[in-house]
Amino acid sequence: MKLGLTSLDLLALITELKPVLISARIENVYQLEDGSFLIKFHAKSGQENVIVDPARRINLTRFKYAIPESPSPQAATLRRHLSSGKVDGISQVGFDRIIFFDITWGEEKIRVYFELFSDGNIIIADSAGTIKYVLHPKSMRDRTIKQGVRYNPPPERGHDILSSSIVSIEEVRTQKFNTGRALTRVYNLPSEVVEEALARIKITPVKPAEEMTPDELDSFTRSARLIIDEAKSCLKPNIVASEGKNVSVLPIAFVTHSQDAKRFETFNEAVDEYFSSIRSEILESKKRSPVEEGLKNLEAILERQKLYVNELEDQKKKFGELGKLIMANMFGIQSMIEKVVLMRRSGKDWDAMLNYDYGIKVKSIDRASGMLTVALGDRDLQIDFKMPASKNAEQYFARSKEAVRKLEGLKTASKDTEEKIAKMKAGLTKISAPVMLRAMKKEWYERFRWSYSSQDFLIIGGKDSTQNEVLVKKHMGTRDIFAHADVPGGSVVIIKSEGKDIPLETKSEAVALAVAFSRAWKAGVGVADGYWVNANQVTKTPPSGEYLGKGAFMIYGERNYIRNIPLIAWFGIRLTDEGFKVLVGNEAFVKANSEYFAVLKPGELECLELNKKIREEVMLGADPKATNLIRAIPDSEITALLPSGGCSVGHLSV
Known about the structure:
five-stranded antiparallel sheet
């Protein structure tokens, strides 16, 4: 199973990353719970996210990840070095598993290296190549990676397959391996590329290297170069599965992996899906490991407790029976004790005492403790001749009672342990791989507030004064409609006409959206007024002597008021194989485009409580799979679309 990107994979990824990320600016850096990094870019296409797991991969991602409330020390340092930096170029170091970004940061030129081998690393160097930051400082035999020294990539391993230098057949033949391993060592190539190149020329990789011919070596070189060329210009991204489990992700079609290949539009998408499933498995394992270790310890404790219970049960029975045995032979044992005491006082030696016929067989005498080991029937028991027989019986009964007392406590403890084990096992069954949820591809207008009217006209609203300004100056056409609440502040809303006449119903829906995203919502009123005007009535030019701030406009001419608009916003979630999308808008739009929805009104719920209530409402009637997906949607995706101020949440059936 492939656990990390190869140099061929990086070559293919770079061809896709360049048109997306060159000229993009870095907005932020986050370190996720598994230690990987999420880098947010503002690109020509909008926001683009890159995930970097230094030990495994780097790729564009559409999956949504839980963002930590506060940055880790590493993320904070990377932000200081990278935020607002513009990407000038993306390249690969030779044909190695190292990719680097050339970035302009203010007046400075820096280079960010991502080393995707071993434990992985992220290194930032200045224009002179001096390291300014390193994720994992290291001192190795062939190079040192630490702040203040010059960055040097690892020494080249093997020959460059793309160079014009000729590799001697003897160099291959003298390798004490099969052909596949020998060529992997001789050339700087991933083993899967070597095996594919050999398969295409019908040579088995297990063939002894010493049997390879010069013609076969030439054929291999041409085959390998063709694979590399395909990865540059003829991508056919796919994930390969075997027995229902993903085993590799490839940028091109491999004859060695033609079975169960799932095709993708881009290699980034394939890499994203492949490694996200690995990430889920790793996170699940991390969550399960401490529980499983705790369970293992508890089961070991329970096993010891059971053994001790058996031991105490035996003691209880044994000592009770021995006490009864003494009671049943009280006269003989007392007579034996008296004779032993008399003989001891009269100076008899121990051997004489041991061999004396007491009527009860004495098997041994412990001279230090004064204990006699005697045989009664088929049982051996110890008798203390320093005390009478009745006292010896009492000693055994006391030991039996002590075993009973310990048993009671131990059984209670064992029951507690069993309950803890049962609880832990129940908790273990609830631990599953985290749901990896993709967001659907976003259109340009989705960085604003947006909706569609019941007549299918696009309605766009600003989230702040900057967006209000952009909407009017850049996106409002001559036949579009401008809408606003009849209160200061709030969203500027425009209706895109696309050259068509806009019905009154659509205008009313746009005004309702403007009212919902105005200060009227935060004030908690039930209804509010709004208006619409034609685009040519809106201007940024103020009356003489006055000033208009950012996001403010002058309206000239008659305003078309709509009175007493109920403050209601519909919230919906759409789930498809492509991912999820969160919607806020009018009732017709939300119901037509989402399976799970709720209605919002001004209220007192905010932040986490509001998100929790919204999820509860939209999950009503959802199946388990949909419920898990809805729970996995980050809070930020929901919060970003809600009106300012608190909400109350309700659910209305279709």
